[in-house]
Amino acid sequence: MKHIRLFFIIAFSLILTSSKSNLKNSKLNVLLIIADDLNCDIGAYGNTTIITPNIDKLAQKGVLFGNAHVQFPWCGPSRASIMTGIYPDQTKIKDLRIYLRQAIPQVITIGQKFRHENYNSVRIGKIFHYHNPRDIGTAGHDDNYTWDQTINPYGRDKVEEYKINTLKPKSYGGTLSWLAADGSDEEQTDGIGASEAINFLEKFSKTGENFFLAFGLYRPHTPYVAPKKYYDLYETEKIEIPNISKEYLKTIPEPAARSVRSVNKKEQHNLDENLAKTVKEAYYATTSFVDAQVGRVLNKLEETGLDKNTIVVFTSDHGYHLGEHGHWMKKTLFEDATRVPLILAGPGINKNQKIMDAPIEMIDLYPTLMDLTGNQTPKFVSGKSFAPLLKDPSKRVRESALTELIIGNKNSKVQGYSIKTDRYRLTQWGENGKLGFELYDHLFDKEELKNLILMDDYIKVRDSLKLILKNRISEARRKPLGLGDQIENAKEWGEPKNIHSQSKNK
Asked: Following DSSP, what letter does each residue of 401-414 receive, concatenated?
């Protein structure tokens, strides 16, 4: 009798354990991969020069969004918006050195929300703002409330900065700079980051716990550092540089002209063609290096079988100019700076979906991930879930994507706003456009080089878009329900100085 009783006790315990395990894995995991300063020069987006086989493969497995835009084309403000699901006018973060809790102390970030839902929330590398490469190896301007565990990789690219070619002596991240580096992938910061992500995936495959794993790469942000083998993939002379008319700047409002001819980056103006090709080749080489690290992580995801229970998101913090409009880097309200790659793959997401051209804002990622994982979106989130589009591409979440930008220094700041629809872009500078407007028709001018704002044929389009933009700005300025305090003019903090080497998570 005792043996029978013992048998039932053990059996009942096993049932409970099994139920608990199943419950623990009842929700999908999330692997979020964010590159730094990556534009849509990717094979999957139609670039036939770039070599990005791993990102292209991910796109084939999932859904690629061709009209996804950030809300501020600059690292710190953009990342704060992505991680909170609210606009920069709501985060009050429009500079780089602002910690999230200085401006919105009671906000619940994506990772923090997953923690509340009993996920293991892990950060590897750059998710919130870091000065790159200055802050590599530190916690940057990270948010401790977002994560259970953090890893700050620190590689050979940081140690050997003295080898880097730069247009501005002793400046690396803030100007065009590059290096065909010695050593292996695994010796570079992003290679170490990929190895750490692999370690965590191995751990999660054994423990069975739900996870939100955010892997933030530091590249292809300047300095463009990648092992020499990636530079060898490209031929400098075959790289093409956009040809911009000398009269072009006269066709756009003065603030727009300032954005592409910043007085702080004079060394990047009117680059010699050979130098420009060298720089662009370096960016492409570094992009291919990033692609290889993404591939290593995705291969491990598949090897462990976690791909069957994990939503994968690949994106960037903003776009990037490579000579378009005569500009290099970011901080404009042109398509090159606002548009980002966005790819989602995983359970419940249609495979082999063509590029989805519906306008998407990056603040929409927060509620989308909540929907896909069966969690409730906080009330303060301004983004709109595009989960319905993943099953039915004919559906629409919004008709336009809004981006804002501030140009100038403390004494001469100019606020700009821009909306992108399926076909058009309208940009205003100054309150109510008092400093000028831009209008571009992507049906005929994907490069956004012909400002149509004064063209008679576009009067109705212009007036309609102006009304839409006015309403979108008002929406972005509205205080979100349940957000708590919004602190205006938060003071920029100093830089983190301590170097924290990565831990080896086995």
From this structure: EEEEEEES-TTS-E
pLDDT digits (tens, 9 = 90+) for 292-313: 999 999 999 999 999 999 999 9
Structural element, H or E, at residue 285: helix 273-303
CATH topology of domain 28-399: Alkaline Phosphatase, subunit A (3.40.720)
Q: What kind and span of H or E run contains 144?
A: none
Residue 233, Cβ density class (10 Å: 0-12 exposed, 13-18 middle, ≥19 buried): middle
- Domain coordinates of the chain in residue numbers? 28-399
Q: Which backbone phi and psi does 355 adopt, to 5 degrees? A: -55, 125
pLDDT digits (tens, 9 = 90+) for 7-26: 433 343 333 333 333 334 57
Question: Do the beta carbons of residue 277 and residue 237 sit within 8 Å?
Answer: yes
Q: How far is CA 124 from CA 149, 151, 188, 191, 505, in A?
A: 9, 5, 14, 11, 12
pLDDT in tens, 393-402: 888 899 999 9
For residues 38 and 320, is the Cβ–Cβ distance under 8 A? yes
pTM comes to: 0.93
The pLDDT score that the predictor gives to residue 25 is 56
Nearest CA among 254, 252, 241, 242 for reference residue 450: 252
Nearest-angstrom CA–CA distance, 407 and 414:
5
